[in-house]
Design a protein that fits this description.
TIM Barrel, 18 strands, binds pyridoxal-5'-phosphate, disordered N terminus, alpha/beta, eight-stranded parallel β-sheet, 2 domains, Lyase, Ornithine Decarboxylase, Chain A, domain 1, ten-stranded mixed β-sheet
């Protein structure tokens, strides 16, 4: 695991490349903003006079301009490279974000859980793919039900036993299913062995009268965060090599492989070289500090292909000791030592408890004051968004929209 010191030095150039932030002093006297009506205003989508100053903290802010630039950039660059995008929604869990991705040419959506797939498909979004095999009765029945309701839905398997279980459930429901075979691509968390075992699994799926074999999934998640673009390119080529051979083997044996899916934000301009037909990239919409540090094609120290669009707004709520302040972004809000303060990269982030975060510094050009409001880039988007129930969408200091973060309420919903 990267130490905070190591992480920060690797991240320093990336942080310097980020836009500087204005530190705002909180408005502590009456501004005339009707706090008692805050939720009612949001329900009515009446955002007049709603600025970052009046928001409860800690909360998540999406910079609308940067977010939209990221979505357009991914769409344009992948189009030029001749590869499709099926963005991963685990990063944002937001129908609003997914709709914009689809409007910019995404061919569908990738989901980590059946709940995310139900959510996106239920919102009318098509070609949702679930990248984990169902291995419980609950998950199998939900995958079968969603396949019946939405024939564009697909999901993966990596085990012949699971194919048998699914077959039984599909038979009972008279359902037809679209399925892919998940193969190993450098991550031991899932994926059948490449070559003959993968081919036999694909043949088993294709020979079922209930199932259509749609292709191969190979997620090379280790390569995604490899530091340095050239090293990342080499890692991805290595991790994808056997999966590519599996695709060829399937084709040679007469199985049509419509889809070869995988890839990530880190390999979006690499994995077309590895034969993928589509990318499951997710983090590019908002970006996080883990990605800032991986380096890009043009700049090995900073990954600036996509901008930091998501921050956590926090308030400095105590300043009683030298060279440190307490903020309200603590464990319950997902604070991490590898987070970074927007515009003030010399501040170290740490925790002091459930509702208490810490910012420390040795020296810096300015120091936070009591009542200041700061914005912090989180470390891993999918973990962080899981702590919050909405994104406040901002144009500069003005809040122009609120998007719910969905599907976080209980195990069956995650
Ligand atoms: C199956 C799968 N595909 C793709 C991704 C890529 O996401 P990102 O672009 O955020 O690295 C992930 C992220 O965890 C994933 O789990």
């Amino acid at each position: 695991m990267t130490s905070r010191r190591g992480f920060l030095s690797a991240n320093a150039a990336a942080m310097a490349a980020l836009t500087s932030a204005k530190v705002r002093a909180a408005k502590t006297s009456s501004t005339g903003f009707p706090y008692t009506e805050f939720e009612a205003l949001i329900r009515r989508r009446d955002f007049r006079d709603m600025t970052k100053d009046v928001l409860p903290t800690p909360c998540m802010i999406v910079d609308q301009a940067i977010f939209e630039r990221n979505v357009k950039a991914m769409a344009e660059r992948t189009k030029a490279l001749g590869i499709d995008v099926r963005p991963h929604v685990k990063i944002h869990k937001s129908v609003d974000v997914a709709k914009l991705q689809m409007a910019h040419g995404a061919i569908g959506l990738t989901c980590a859980t059946i709940a995310e797939a139900e959510l996106m498909s239920g919102a009318g979004l098509k070609n949702v793919m679930w990248t984990k095999q169902p291995a419980s009765r609950n998950a199998i029945e939900r995958a079968v039900a969603l396949s019946k309701k939405d024939p564009t839905f697909s999901f993966v398997v990596d085990d012949p036993l699971v194919v048998d279980w699914i077959e039984q459930a599909a038979e009972a429901e008279n359902a037809r299913l679209k399925m892919l075979v998940s193969v190993y691509a450098g991550l031991s968390r899932q994926g059948i062995e490449n070559g003959q075992p993968a081919l036999e699994l694909a043949q088993k799926v294709a020979s079922s009268k209930r199932m259509k074999f749609d292709g191969i999934m190979a997620y090379s998640g280790f390569a995604s965060h490899t530091h340095g673009w050239q090293k990342r390119r080499e890692q991805s080529a290595k991790d994808m090599a056997q999966a590519r051979e599996t695709v060829e083997l399937c084709k040679k044996s007469g199985l049509p492989v419509n889809i070869f899916t995988g890839g990530s934000t880190g390999t979006y301009n690499i994995d077309h070289e590895n034969g993928l037909t589509e990318l499951e990239a997710g983090s590019y919409v908002f970006m996080d500090t883990a990605y800032f540090a991986v380096g890009g094609k043009d700049n090995d120290a900073a990954y600036t292909d996509f901008g930091g669009a998501l921050t956590i707004l926090t308030t400095v709520d105590s300043k009683r000791h030298p060279n440190q302040v307490t903020i309200d972004y603590g464990n319950k809000a997902g604070v991490r030592a590898t987070d970074a303060v927007k515009g003030m990269p010399w501040l170290e982030v740490a925790t002091q408890g459930a509702e208490y975060g810490l910012l420390k510094w040795k020296d810096g050009s300015s120091e936070p004051k009591l009542g200041d409001r700061l914005e912090i880039y989180c470390t891993t988007l999918d973990n962080s968004t899981n702590y919050y129930d909405r994104y406040y969408v901002a144009q500069g200091d003005r809040i122009v929209d609120v998007w719910p973060i969905m599907g976080r309420s209980g195990a069956a919903q995650r």
